[in-house]
Design brief:
Elements: E1 2-11, E2 14-21, E3 24-32, H1 44-54, E4 57-60, H2 66-82, E5 91-92, E6 105-109, H3 114-122, E7 129-134, H4 143-160, E8 163-169, H5 171-177, H6 182-197, E9 202-208, E10 237-241, H7 247-254, H8 258-263, H9 281-293, H10 308-313, H11 321-333, H12 339-349, H13 353-368, H14 374-397
Parallel strand pairs: 1-4, 4-5, 6-7, 6-9, 7-8, 9-10
Antiparallel strand pairs: 1-2, 2-3, 3-8
Helix pairs in contact: 1-2, 1-6, 3-7, 7-9, 9-11, 11-12
């Protein structure tokens, strides 16, 4: 059995692929406000990750760049070394000769977040394009939040004097339907898919790092400085930027930028169409970053008061615990004496697994359920149980 991907150029700026998996067909479509690469190369990263999860090989009907094919096989091997339970598929695709380099621009993925603004400002001299994706942290079925985010990104691009490339894709649905964990395995491959589609315009794409070496949180992840460059092609280089700085360092670097302080956007919930809700873990985490760096009061897009009581009952995913520790350590290292905030961060770090589960289900019941249809809540709860069962099984094997 093999995952088969059939690529179709719908229009010069719209491309889709039909994935045949276990006898069923799944269509993924990606569009942009610019022309897109029409080869099979951009479909290698998501195809490899899906094939690894479904324990099948991968077959593409469109020709691929030989450097990208070799890199995809290396990326596959690296992911397998991190997650041995994943399959190591063979990849079958026609190979094309590497053409002369097409685009000459330098792009940077830009969500408007802390990591993105840090990399954009740091590399401002060479960046020619910002890349905004509707369909990764923003559900493509929710146009209202995206409209405001897009307007903000256009203002940033105009003030910087660069071009904004806007991408719309439903690729994430392919991964969620086939067991891929978006954070641990699929995120970087999805970014690479978009970057490779833009090779007619760009020679390099910068991915803003979410981790840093100095805080010790560079654990295996779907987007990682060792992994992302492996998805490059002969025409386009993918690099990760920002591993030299933790989130407090980044907050310190952007706090004096009027551009960043007017447009910083870190929330990926946007329940009520808000730019930043100011209540979720990521919003509060960033507020604390800016507070430690001395820039919270300059930020126009986040509240200036950290909601301590909210922190005590806030759902925090396992992946966010290192950021709570990072903030607590930074406060102590810098001699910031705020007993109430320090105690709130320590209580988060001291939570038991049982307390975590209670807060997780409380969040689902009181905050998610009123906004999402019941059937989706059922699917989400089922998915959480499956993830826990997989983790328990994995732990038992070790």
């Amino acid at each position: 059995m093999a995952v088969q991907a059939s690529i179709d150029l719908v229009e010069v700026n719209v491309i889709k692929s039909v994935f045949s998996i276990d006898g069923k067909h799944f269509t993924v479509q990606t569009s942009a406000n610019v022309s897109l690469d029409r080869s099979g190369t951009p479909w290698l990263p998501p195809g490899v990750v899906v094939a690894m999860t479904t324990e099948q090989d991968l077959e593409l009907d469109a020709p691929v760049d030989p450097a990208a094919l070799s890199g995809a096989e290396q990326a596959r091997d690296l992911l397998h070394s991190w997650y041995p339970q994943l399959h190591t598929p063979s990849v079958v695709a026609p190979v094309i000769s590497t053409s002369d380099r097409e685009g000459g621009g330098v792009g940077c993925f830009f969500s408007g977040g802390l990591d993105a603004f840090y990399s954009v400002l740091k590399n401002r001299a060479e960046i020619t394009h910002l890349i905004l994706v509707h369909g990764f942290d923003i559900d493509p079925r929710r146009p209202k939040p995206y409209e405001r985010i897009s307007a903000g990104a256009r203002e940033v691009a105009a003030e910087m004097g660069v071009e904004l490339i806007e991408i719309r894709t439903d690729l994430q649905f392919l991964h969620t339907r086939h067991g891929n964990n978006w954070g641990s395995t699929a995120h970087g491959a999805a970014l690479a898919h978009v970057a490779l589609l833009l090779s007619p315009h760009l020679r390099k794409v910068i991915v803003a790092a979410s981790g840093s070496y100095d805080t010790g949180n560079m654990t295996p992840h779907g987007s990682h400085p060792d992994l992302d460059p492996l998805w490059s092609s002969g025409n386009l280089e993918i690099v990760q930027d920002g591993t030299d700085a933790n989130r407090i360092d980044k907050a310190e670097a952007i706090k004096d930028s009027d551009l960043a302080m007017r447009h910083l956007r870190v929330c990926n919930l946007n329940w009520d169409g808000d730019y930043n809700c100011g209540k979720c873990e990521k919003c509060i985490r960033t507020m604390i970053n800016l507070y430690i760096a001395g820039g919270l009061e300059r930020c126009e897009t986040l509240p200036h008061t950290i909601p301590i009581e909210r922190m005590n009952r806030m759902h925090v995913t396992s992946g966010a615990f290192p950021f709570a520790k990072e903030n607590l350590d930074a406060m102590r290292a810098r001699g910031i004496h705020d007993a109430e905030l320090e105690a709130a961060l320590q209580r988060i770090l001291d939570r038991t697994p049982r307390e975590q589960r209670i807060l997780e289900y409380r969040w689902l019941l009181l905050e998610v359920a009123p906004r999402v249809p019941r059937v989706l809540i059922g699917l989400l709860v089922q998915r959480l149980r499956t993830i826990r069962a997989d983790r328990s099984s994995h732990s038992a094997q070790h």
